[in-house]
Amino acid sequence: MVVKVIELVGTSRHNWTDAVDNAVTEAAKTIDDIMGVEVTNFTANIDNGRIAEYKADVKVAFQVH
């Protein structure tokens, strides 16, 4: 088996968990057989002293056919 890993950034206006989920959900629209995800970093954009957008850097692993 061969596994390929790509790096993505997911975003959410609600929380980091949703940012990770959004990255995986979008990837799954064009990639089959996603096997796992590794979260490598969390960041956020700030607006008026509050978090406006959560960001999650992720590595998505999937099987190559």
Distance between the termini: 8 Å
Write down the overall geometry.
elongated
The radius of gyration over CA amounts to 13 Å
Strand order of the largest sheet: 1-3-2
Strand tally is 3
Mean pLDDT: 97
Number of helical regions: 1
- Structural class, judged by helices and strands? alpha+beta
DSSP strand content: over 45%
Which consecutive residue ranges, at least 5 long each, have pLDDT under 50?
A: none
Q: Specify the biggest β-sheet.
A: 3 strands, antiparallel
Oligomer: single chain
Helix content range: 10-25%
What is the succession of H and E elements? EHEE
Question: In terms of topology, how is this protein built?
Answer:
Blueprint: E1 2-12, H1 16-28, E2 34-47, E3 50-64
Summarize this structure briefly.
With 65 residues, the chain is of the alpha+beta class.
Could you characterize what this model shows?
With 65 residues, the protein is an alpha+beta fold. It has one helix and three strands; from the N terminus they run βαββ. It has one helix spanning 16-28; strands spanning 2-12, 34-47, 50-64. It has a three-stranded antiparallel sheet with strand order 1-3-2. The longest helix is centred in the middle third of the chain and has 13 residues, at 16-28. It is elongated. The N and C termini lie close together (8 Å). The mean pLDDT is 97.
